[in-house]
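Researcher: Structure prediction, please.
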Amino acid sequence: STDSTFATKTQVSYTTSVAARVGKPAGVFLNSSKLDTVSFAPNITINEGQNFYFRLYPWVDSSSSVSGKYIALRNVVIYATALPIPVSASALWPLSSKTESATVSGLINAGGVNFGGDLYHYGYNANGDRWMTHSGAWPQDSGPDFTRYAQLSVSPKTGGTFYASTLQFKMIVEFTNNLRVAMYYSNDTSFTTKTFIADTTVSSSMTSYSYNISDTVQTGETMYVRFYPYDIKGDPAYKLVDMDSIMIGGNTTGLAILPPAISTTTASYVSTTFFTAGGNVTSDGGGTVTAKGVCWDTAANPTISGSHTTDGTGIGLFSSSITGLIPGIAYHIRAYATNISGTSYGTDVIVRTLAIVVPPTVTTSAISGIFAVSANGGGNVTDWGGAPVTAKGVCWNTTGNPTVNDNKTVDGNDLGSFSSALTGLVGGTTYHIRAYATNKSGTGYGADSTFTTQNILPDTTVVVAQDGSGNYTTVQQALNAVPSNYTGHWTIFVKKGRYHEKDTVAATKMNVILVGEDRDSTVIWNDDYGDKYGSGNPGTSGTFTVTVEANDFIAKNITIQNTYSPQPGVSGTQAVALRVNGDRQEYVNCKLLGYQDTYYTWGGRGAGRIYMKNCFIEGTVDFIFGRDIVVFDSCTIHEIRNGGTLTAGSTDPTSLYGYVFRNCTILADSIGYDGVAITSFDLGRPWQANPRTVFMRCSEPANLDPAGWLSWNVNPAIYGEYKCFGPGSSTSARVSWSTQLTDDAAKQYTLSNIFARSSASSPLILFDWMPVNASASDNFPIVTAVNNEENNIIPKSVTLYQNYPNPFNPTTIIRYALPKSSLVSITIYDILGREVKTLVDEVKSAGQHNVEFNANTLSSGIYFYTLRAGEIVQTHKMILLK
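Model: Predicted structure follows.
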């Protein structure tokens, strides 16, 4: 039996020819005083983990006394034949870090990732290995191009056979929905003969795929699996397919189980009585790893018979905490792993505990990005000193050997490298800088390094005029003339005109201020679109009219337009007016006009921070889209197509904020640009990554879809609203995955929080930022924006707010703020500039004020209201809809 209790058993004896036992149970009749040779054939299969039990039951068949009788048993032999038992085996390519090697389980070998044709490894991100073509452009293919592939391989170890049964992986596309991937396998290195697995459209959200395969791979053979990505429409540069966690699974036969393969990892966080170690089980030898950990001793080559940890089972990396040690002692450590075949050990490594806890060890990084008032520094904490690092950063002064009592940054904790932004510096000054790290024992410092800030150069203004009356006749000429990394403000004043250009503000053209003479009469325009030249060129990102690559850029009173409108039968009709790719950019009283993809908050070098104030943005579908962190203050968002979507977010998972619309007016025409009635549109749909978009105290029109939002490629981190108003603001029918923010949540949406360094983990964002064009009242929590009088807040500047509600019928409230007592006038004008009514003309005290405007005698249309307080003049637009 294989059952130790013998509840079930199989009888294998028989009645011998020596004596027939008629009417008696079958058995072996034993001759008196004579050894008989008896054999049986149980024919039973014993599987791995089972035991085989063999029992002999002696008995007598007469009533005679058995006293003094014996049975002699001699030379009992159990013969068995070992059959080839399938052992689970798999090869896993994680593709989640800078390696393309596989981790194997079972008695197989695996190769790396090889590429054919123009496909290549582009890099890594959170989605894994990114693949694209060398040219960047994907040609249009009706089926797979068998010269363009990524290939993986697996083979049995010598003497074995591998039976492949499954192919699993995760896959996602970036910046396109047109890619498909076909999969084949073959045991022929030339792939002259191959077996089809699947051909599937790749989702723009990370999706798991699993397919059954059936391939027998003998010793000396190799199984190859190829992925053939292809584009059914053709796409431009930077369209990628990302692969993650590719696994080929099955089982092997014909081999003995070997001990596991394991390595010992370097010890870290060494203290007086403990440290952290670990190992990596790279192969289980064909049998399940039942235990793994680290063993240690003061003598060399410790084993599990002495002190050791137990840190789980299976293959892969693991970490171990070694505790209870003696200060100042050298210990030998080895990682181990055990399977049914035995225990393997990694290399013997010597680790000495600290005698006492000391301050951390830190090095100072080279200084870069040195300007007049800022510079970039950093450091690397290489040893914690025996206790957790509670703070690290850089400190600086002008005298030498700075400490944390001088100017400093705080850039996290723990071991490892960090970057720091030094701000508030003085031009033309020599500074000393040191990296520091602090633990309970004290603060350690890196070497003292010096740098000298640039001198602040004088502010400069140049003029662009088409008629030749200025310094330049085109905007791009003026941008090209901006000195690289200029430390003063370089203002480009653009006179009225329609400038047919395709302009780039290069990354080195910092501190540029682009000012139009009149917003509606100063227009930069172009008419590129996604597939203008075929084969995906110039692509969405290349269609821009203006692209801003620089940090610290400001635009005021100007229109940026892409005039291309979608045409019947034309694909790739994306057409960007403004593409931004930098940090700390501001757009004030600007107009962005287009159709599909008007405003691309790209963030190609990492998420940046953008501030939009009193701007007008118009489009059809996803016309505000991208990854940047953008605040829209008192802006007008204009939908001009039925079924359109305002936003398509792609917020980084590490960003706490994405798109924030505050006190904005959403408009949708009754008839779209194409003559179709606009009966419905949506606030947005989640494009990719971890999108965050909120509308706070915004006016929402009647033709906003009651659901509010569309689902798309990914689930949003947050798509929400806060106290929006107007006929489209009913929340009862909103999709269940959208959010209505609470007051407490809304209070977090201040500019200080949104634009704080801690709100995003991006290489561009080095320090907290407050836009220069944001007034003090703009930084109030949005929850108090309408009722500041109740909070007794005295503003620091004159501010005219967007009227509430807007559009309105027939009354609306106009709010304004005064830092001191002033003579104030508020006048209403029609679209032709004719004065309609004076609402205020008197001295008002400091504080928050509001006045009601009743337009019951006026016709529907666009009106303007202007506040004059001393030398301050501010104007907003409002819409009367009856």
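Model: The first helix runs from residue 475 to 480.
Researcher: Thanks, that helps.
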